[in-house]
């Protein structure tokens, strides 16, 4: 929240007193130094605002989405692993240690047996006690639909990956840092072999000094350097049709981030005042390298960090990702060491979930009533995957015979009624504490 501290009005006098102490003979400061000290803008030296430390509020509907999609992601990754296998199946021994890698809270063998509509179990030809799993016909059909979407949307996928690289300091990142984001960014399996070589005008593959393979942007694409927030304001208001989209020095503009406050925050004047002042700060595009001309301790840099995180989450298919995936890109994205504070500091923009024994961050504006506001075709197909998975759980004995073939051609059936609104556990009546930024 933005409000002036009680001692701020005394700041010039305090500076003068501090200077007079340091102007003793042993320090020998000149009059010019005094002039510089008193005329330098205040924001360059320290924050001029008092923040509000907001208490975390649980969002049941978003937690449910993350819970569901954890199993969905694991099933899709296992499906891809079975496809890559030269034998067309996986043995229980081959995936024995994949539980943490897949983000599961149960052993992989138990997970595969839970969804017989996707994974068919059979005994090994030589070792009868060794369980093996292959894809069912339903899973193969869904996979063929997925490949069709990847082909039809390939240009869009290339743009997403290019924009990710364009936000980075050196326009380069290790390929191993992108692999955890493959599902979230909607990248095809084996994208480094099946996608990257087809676009030499967009990407280069090179090796770092330590031998690690890296992906580099081959050429800057100015048509991509337009953030999701800028596109949203442009589409809603038209070019130059919005008073809030006013130019600032160096071409900056003030753009408002969409905000949806948890219950207990929206009506609080201190929180609203803080957010209003934050919105008035100039918006710096995440594609603009402003690190050298912005004080890293200023509110302006904080808004830039929020913009970078907002844009990165906007690039994902489900408008969410795990915090640890972002941590591996922190230095290239020029994020502060403790950048995850932004997720709880701005609960109207982000939601931080602790479901499934991990930390996931979601973009609030990407969801309405617990569902994606603008689902990507891949997200719709993944809904079908989950419908098939649920059918396997509900009708384990009948398996694939209970899957409706028409569902494969149409949108997944709605098994649950839409929630009337986002359910959130309200905190205590005092949902915030005044705090400085030194945490």
UniProtKB/TrEMBL annotation:
GO molecular function, one term: RNA binding
UniProt source species: Linum tenue
Biased composition regions of type Acidic residues, renumbered to the chain: 411-439
Start and end residues of each PORR domain: 57-392
Record protein name field: PORR domain-containing protein
Renumbered residue ranges of the record's region Disordered: 404-439
InterPro entries: PORR_domain (IPR021099), PORR_fam (IPR045040)
């Amino acid at each position: 929240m933005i409000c002036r501290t009680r001692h701020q009005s005394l700041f010039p006098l305090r500076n003068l007193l501090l200077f007079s102490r340091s102007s003793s003979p042993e320090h020998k400061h000149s009059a010019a130094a005094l002039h510089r000290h008193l005329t330098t803008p205040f924001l360059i030296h320290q924050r001029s605002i008092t923040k509000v430390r907001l208490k975390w509020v649980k969002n049941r509907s978003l937690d449910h989405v993350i819970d569901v999609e954890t199993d969905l992601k694991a099933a899709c990754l296992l499906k891809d692993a079975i496809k890559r296998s030269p034998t067309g199946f996986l043995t229980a021994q081959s995936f024995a240690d994949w539980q943490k890698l897949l983000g599961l809270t149960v052993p992989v063998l138990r997970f595969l047996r839970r969804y017989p509509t996707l994974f068919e179990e059979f005994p090994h030809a030589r070792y009868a006690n060794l369980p093996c799993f292959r894809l069912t016909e339903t899973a193969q059909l869904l996979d063929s639909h997925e490949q069709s979407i990847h082909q039809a949307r390939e240009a869009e996928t290339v743009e997403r990956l290019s924009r990710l690289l364009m936000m980075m300091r050196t326009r380069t990142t290790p390929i191993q840092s992108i692999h955890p984001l493959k599902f979230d960014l909607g990248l095809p399996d084996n994208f480094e072999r099946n996608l990257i070589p087809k676009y030499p005008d967009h990407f280069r593959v090179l090796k770092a000094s330590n031998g690690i393979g890296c992906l580099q942007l081959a050429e800057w694409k100015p048509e991509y350097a337009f953030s999701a927030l800028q596109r949203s304001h442009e589409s809603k208001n038209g070019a130059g049709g919005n008073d809030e989209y006013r130019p600032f020095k160096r071409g900056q503009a003030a753009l408002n981030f969409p905000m949806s406050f948890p219950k207990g925050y929206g009506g609080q004047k201190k929180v609203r005042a803080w957010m209003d002042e934050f919105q008035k700060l100039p918006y710096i595009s995440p594609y603009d390298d402003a690190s050298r001309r912005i004080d890293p301790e200023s509110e302006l840099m904080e808004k830039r960090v929020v913009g970078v995180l907002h844009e990165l989450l906007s690039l994902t298919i489900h408008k969410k990702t795990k915090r640890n995936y972002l941590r591996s890109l922190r230095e290239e994205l020029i994020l502060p060491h403790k950048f995850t504070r932004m997720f709880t500091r701005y609960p109207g923009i982000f939601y931080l979930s602790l479901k499934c024994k991990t930390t996931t961050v979601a973009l609030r504006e990407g969801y309405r009533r617990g569902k994606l506001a603008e689902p990507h075709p891949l997200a719709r197909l993944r809904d079908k995957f989950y419908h098939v998975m649920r059918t396997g759980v509900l009708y384990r004995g009948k398996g694939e015979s209970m899957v409706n073939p028409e569902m494969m051609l149409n949108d997944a059936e709605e098994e649950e009624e839409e929630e009337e609104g986002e359910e959130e556990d309200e905190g205590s009546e005092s949902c915030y504490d005044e705090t400085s930024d030194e945490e």
